[in-house]
Every structure is written in C-alpha cells, then in structure tokens.
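Subgroup meeting minutes
Present: P.N., E.W., G.H.
Scribe: E.W.

1. P.N. recapped why we're keeping a running log of single-chain structure predictions: easier to compare across weeks, and new members can see raw inputs and outputs side by side.
2. G.H. added today's entry (425 aa).
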Amino acid sequence: MPLTIPDFLSSRLGRPVAVLGSGVSGGGAIALLTKLGSTAVLYDQRGTEFTREAAREHELVVFSPGFSLHHPWLESARKSGCICMAEIDFASLFWRGRVIAVTGTNGKTTLTEFLARALSSVGRRALASGNIGYPFTRLVADEDGGTPETTAVCEVSSFQAEQLGHFCADALLWTNLAEDHLERHPGMEAYFTAKWELVLRTPPSRFFAGSSVARYAAQFGRSIPPGSLVQTEGQPGDPRLSGTPFASYPQRENFILAEAWWRSEGLSEAALYAAAKIFRLGRHRLSNLGTFEGVTYWNDSKATNFHAVEAALSGFQKPVVLIAGGRSKGGDIPGFARRIAPRLSHAVLIGETGPALAGACEALGVPHTLCLTLDDAVRTAASACRPGGDVLLSPGFSSFDMFRNYEDRGDRFERAVAELQSARV
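Output recorded in log:
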C-alpha cells in the first residue's frame, strides 16, 4: 500500500530535500525519502556544508537529533522559507500503526527492546526503533509504513523530544530522570522540559512515570496525571524474576514500569514473566567478561552518565577498581566523585574529564591513576585490583573524545582484557 503524503508536504517533496547529518538518522531519512520517490541531498558538518545558498535550493529539511533547534543551518533554512522537521517527526507522518514511546535518562534502550520482544511473544507484531540505532524513518521505510496492527516501540531521547511537531504516542513510559546532557540543555529543568514534550503528545491515561520523574515534576511545577505514577524505586525483590536481567536494580525499575503498562493492556502477566526469562541484555550493559587471576572484569561502556555509574556500583558488595572518564556532558563532577567514592578501591581515569576526576579524587582521598589510553587503563586496573575483586569499566561520560561510540569503547575494553589475559598465560 503506497505511503500517503500529507498535503502540506506534497509540493515540497517534489523538490530535492535537504537531509542534515550523515549518521544513522540521516541514513534513515534518505531511505524513507527514496521510498516516497523524492530526491535527498545530504549535508554534514564533516562533509558538504549547508550554506545559505544551498538552503535556497530546498523547501524541506529533515535533520538528525544532533542538530539543536537553534543550529545555524536550521536558522538559515527557516529564513529561506524551508519547513524543518526532525527525523523522528518526519517518520511519524507516514506510520500507520501504534507507537509506544519510551524515554528516560537510563534504561530506555533495554525497556524498548524488552517490550518489543514481549509483545512479539504474545503474537503482536512489534518492532523496536528510534534512538536505539534503528531510526523511526528506517523502520517506516522497511515496513512500508506498517499496518494498524503493527506497534513501533520507539526510544526517544531528550534531543528528539524537544524537536517534535507531529509525533504523538499511544502510550509513554518514562523510566527515570537524573543529571545528563547538560552540554545541550542549560539545566535540569530544561532537560526535564524537553522530555515533557512527550507527555503533551500522549493521552494522559496512557502515561507511565517512574518515581524519580514524579519528584522532578513536583520540583518544576508540573502535574503528573492521576494514575500515571509507578513506584519504581525501592521495591522488594520478586522471586519470579530470579535469573533474569530484572532480578535486581537498576533493571528492576524497567520491569516494574513495563508491567504497569502491560497490565493496563489486559495482557497475560504470566506471558510477561516468561518473556523476562528468555530476555538478554544487549552488549556493553554491565556484561561479565569472566574472572582471571581472581579478578572479575565488567564491561558497562553504555554507562554514559553519572546515574548509570552509580546504579552499576550499587550492585557490588565491596569497593571496585573503576575505569571512568570521557567527554563531558555537563554536570557536577566533584559531586559525582563524592557520591561514588565509598564504592571505589581505586579509580583509573581516562579521557578529557580524566584530570577533573583526578582532582576530585585527590580532594576525597580516593586512590587514583590517570592513563592516556584504555589499554594502559586496563593494565593499571589489573595491577590495582586484588584477587577476589572487580574491575569495572563504567565511564560516566560520552565516548567521543577517544572512540567512535560507546560500542567501540566497549569492544576495545574487551580486547584489552583478552590481550592482558593472553600475555599472562
């Protein structure tokens, strides 16, 4: 069935469409534009510049979430009379099925993937998309817009949420909120407000908010709809989740929220627990790499903010050797160091924030070492850790100072650990 093009876009798609950003979102936008029979022209800050002259060649601009609303390229496009649409917003115009939006500071990727698999397990066609690395535009193109019976479980970041103009959700699950992305948002209230845009685009009765979201809502004078609050923190263990990723925190929070939505849909509780039994976390999420010479190594490269590191550390019974550091996303580094200090036996610090972390550790009396490379950090951590201890890579910062992405960082950590082990055999 051909995709239906909204009237306000039909003439603009007749001319070449500017796509800003060459990453996965840009690629998804090009795939959807091609499906629509339109021509796309790609612009990227590391390639073809989007100049004022170029802006006059287009009537529609589709941009990746890395472009803030006030980016100079978008300002030029608007002044030239272009309609500017975020990639996820553009995709939503052509999707025929349901949308479950998932957002939060941490846990949203796991929750997105789990809900899609759980729904599939009960015979509902559901696909995970959005900020997980499979853009909504790519999904729409691959599925020819889907059917009314298809559900897109869509992870939405704060960067994406603040850019919305058309996207609406049939349900919204907001896991939690903690300090993150303050390099883009000028403060916690702005970060909260960006995500709140999703609340405004979801029926009040279909909004499910974790405990920390409610605390921030009260702080910023926002009203959580009656029945939306889900008590996700400090809940007792559930023996039915034994042996699953959701047996303990931080993943326990994700399951509690999923269960609240699942119950509201009238779906089988037993089926959700059965899905949890076979669900496995993606790589780089507190993955146990094994024990060597009495030391256990953990890859938590996806921990790119303070809250994720603190959650990971909370699962260890004794202080660990922590490898941390990277590119700053804003936030209070001394405060972060103060909160995690009791859980550290040694801090091995890398990346652009390494010196600032070292200064904070020095002030707190935490043993620490600055390293120039991740390989050096692994060797240093191994030497600093006693048998029976743990070495944890949980950086707390973006990877882009030294690596392509968090996956690259995690892969290189795993290789360094493997090389360390082979060298000692």
